Amino acid sequence: MRANERVCSVEITNNHVGFFAQMVWCLYILRYCERRRLIPDIRLTGDTYRDSKRGSNWLYHYFDSDSPIPSGEIARRVRYTKKISAWGDMGPPIVGRMSLSDGACTFNKYLRPKRDIVKHVNDFWASMAADGPVLGVHFRGTDHSEEAPRVSYRHCFNVILDYLSTHNSTRAVFVASDEHAFIEFIKNLLRSVIPVYSHNDHYRSKDSDNIPVFLRSLGEGGYEKGEDALVNALLLSKCATLIRTTSCLAAWASIFNLTLKVILLNKPYKDKLWYPESEVVSKADTEYRPEIRD
Which of 238, 248, 243 lies closest to 278, judged by CA? Predict the structure, then answer.
């Protein structure tokens, strides 16, 4: 970084970690730079979310960046770039504990979603025409049972019904999931109760092979997979309350909206409790509704 004239240049090359998990890595690097008054130069070059027609750095497929110096000047200064493919490649913890508000402040200082993505989110929200609070629901399925106990569709549905019975002002439900079957299950059972909406994702699991959406057809539809993730997280953040299973995508909704009320249906295993879920779990107003099994 001294040789780079205070530019912290990092290239993340990973094809096996999801969109928001990689965004967590970016957040920690940005926080590190913020505390040390360094200029960040982050490049995400894995194939999972990259569209070669949009450039080599997929971070800028989805976000605009605010930098104190022009990109050309950053390129002139950079002589060394740290390349990482896993969290451990960054070495010892580069920052201490980071709260949700810390993460939100750092994110908003350096990054903002592209205007076309924000417009897409706002247009979809307006199309719901909900004249009151919206309940968000997110179910992370496929391979996620490796990180947290799997929750049954029925338990999630029962918690939704219980919430609606005590929150009569709720006007709609927005549901997101990597499992197509879950969305259809919720829509079918709630159709006569309340309007239910879901984003028409480009990619979603339609079988039970437990392959995460972002790992399907690696190298194909990269941009669309990332767009689906970001759009759903932003839509969930606009809800009044979010009933969900543990998920990095859904946890980022709490960074996009620090006042979001969360009802959590499961918790990560202790060795899988990562930021920002670790902060959501510890929030005083997070309600925990686990499934009781015989």
Answer: 248
| Domain ranges across the chain | 7-113, 117-288
Outline where DSSP puts E strands in the chain. Answer: 7-12, 39-44, 63-65, 82-84, 111-113, 134-139, 172-177, 196-197, 241-244, 261-264, 287-288
Query: Is 120's pLDDT higher than 70?
Result: yes
The bridge status of strand 63-65 relative to strand 111-113 is antiparallel
Q: What is the pLDDT of residue 123?
A: 98
CA 249 – CA 204 distance, rounded (Å): 14
97 contact partners, CB below 8 Å, separation of at least 6: none
Task: Judge whether 55 and 226 are in contact, CB under 8 Å.
Answer: no
Q: How confident is the model at residue 211 (pLDDT cuts 50, 70, 90)?
A: low
The predicted-structure confidence for 153-188, as pLDDT tens digits, reads as follows 999 999 999 999 999 999 999 999 999 999 999 999
Taking the domain 117-288, which CATH number applies?
3.40.50.11350
Task: Give 287's strand partners.
Answer: 263
Nearest alpha-carbon partner for 224 in 250, 203, 197: 203
Kindly report whether the peptide bond that precedes residue 70 is cis, defined as omega within 30 degrees of 0.
Answer: no
Token representation of residue 43: 């490049």
